[in-house]
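Fold these two proteins, one after the other.
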Amino acid sequence: MQILENVPLAPLTTLQVGGPARFLAQAATLDEVRAAVDFARGRGLDLFVLGGGSNLVVADRGFPGLVLRVALRGIEERRENGNLLFAAAAGEDWDAFVARAVARDAAGIECTSGIPGTVGGTPIQNVGAYGQEVSQTIDSVRALDLETGQVRELCNEACEFAYRTSLFNSSARGRYIVLGVSFALTPGGAPHLAYADLQKHFAGRSAPPTLAETRAAVRAIRQSKAMLLVEGDEDCRSAGSFFKNPVVTEAEYEALSQVAARRGLQVPRFTAAGGSVKVPAGWLVEHSGFARGMARGAVGISRKHALAIVNRGGATAAQIVALKEEIQRRVAAEFGLQLVPEPVFLGFD
């Protein structure tokens, strides 16, 4: 395993901002992962595991520790309890993995097509899109426990999944390095079509869409919103959706609705777990004065998606954070809700 010094991190992220890593290592085996951990510990360095860089904002000064890219590869398949189980190594490309599952006619992750990143990153944030979350199909997560040095197999329940959160980015943040994920998918299952954009896409059809058609539709919808990485599209130079959709109680939603009604607005709502209400963060952003296509010099809002803060070329991390904070202040002032960012912030105080 080679350990490099002073490696620029901006090119390794989709947002393309930030300074260098003091050290960077790429591990293709478990032994190399352990060696990287030992290297960091031996020098008293902070350790950060980098996946596809699609959900990351790196500080302009960079990161003074060791950045580890987990490059374990391989996918195994087996039948179990009527499901088709895919055990995918953490370094596998996520969208390519989804394509493989769809090609095997295995349902359960087709709506997450086009999401950039690696398999290992998906359980950490409980990645989801268009009505699906990976927690719905994850059977187990294989991870290196940095406290004990042992490799553990964590079942779905042990991962403490919730909306855009898990054990790995909350109560046990920094304790585990994900090595692989097993998914229990449904052979011959029907595609998940709960999302309004998908229903609209397939409206008027007499025959239900296939998994492959659903995957293609999801990718097309994502591209229309600049949420698919396409060379030359500056609106996709982002960290994806920058804010989580607020989840509120029914009473909180009613109070929010009254605030909006005084401006002649009706707040959209979606049902969330436990009888809660999910409010679209993009709607809050737009109705707080941040129109699609808005620019603040080199940073701005995507022309196609109100939740994407974009780097239009030459932006700094400080400029990204300044716009993020401006949006948060305005939404709090207008609607009394605090928007929580989705990306990880690396190298900041």
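Now the second one:
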Amino acid sequence: MAAIAGQNKARELLRQSHFLIALVRAARAGIFDLKRLYWLLLRRPAIRKYLQNNSITGLQIGTSKSPIPGWLNTDVAPKNKGVVYLDATRRFPFSDGQFNYIFSEHMIEHIDYDGCLAMLRECVRVLKPGGTIRLATPDLGVLLALYSKEKTPAQERYLDWILGRNLPGVTSHKEVFVINNAFRAWGHMFLYDRQLLEAAMLEAGFINLKSYKPGVSSDQYLRGREMHGSVIGSEEINQFETLVVEGSVAGATKSG
């Protein structure tokens, strides 16, 4: 009888814990909804003021804690004053052809592929003729190459850096753990190699695609934009893992 009573008590505690977990999740969702209403109230006047005061316009998508001076900085959960709310998977709150530049760094891997395509199509719509987008994201090709039997010194340094920072208990089969970690950690939803990212950009309507290393561009307004190295504390790691692609929309050629 005592054993049965103990089992019943355990089941009841389990049911209560599920209920409490659901309550906490609902409360968090409610708080976020209230924040979103507040961000939406602030958004329209902030956009209007920015567009009125800037002749060369730049839109950053997924600003996080790295706003760019002179750009309209946006994020799905603004963390800094002056960052405007934007869900990049939905229609953007801008008229057609309002921006010269769009920049997004280590953001598209946090939305699914369909969401990325929707975002890219909106980027085409809101860019001015000849406008340019610059995307930076982890390179799936680089990550999968870690599985090679013979590794370069750069690959070994990357593996050790990721393990030391995120998987300190791993002592063998390092590349397997690091590759798996890249798919599931930090809220990642979909990773790209260069070929797929370029295919998605072409499908959305971009032309004249060009590949660069982080920080490098033939356009003065897009040079030195990547801040991921500073965020993670290692520019070497950023250079190793990040692919960068620029594309433009049809129209007049800009000077850069």
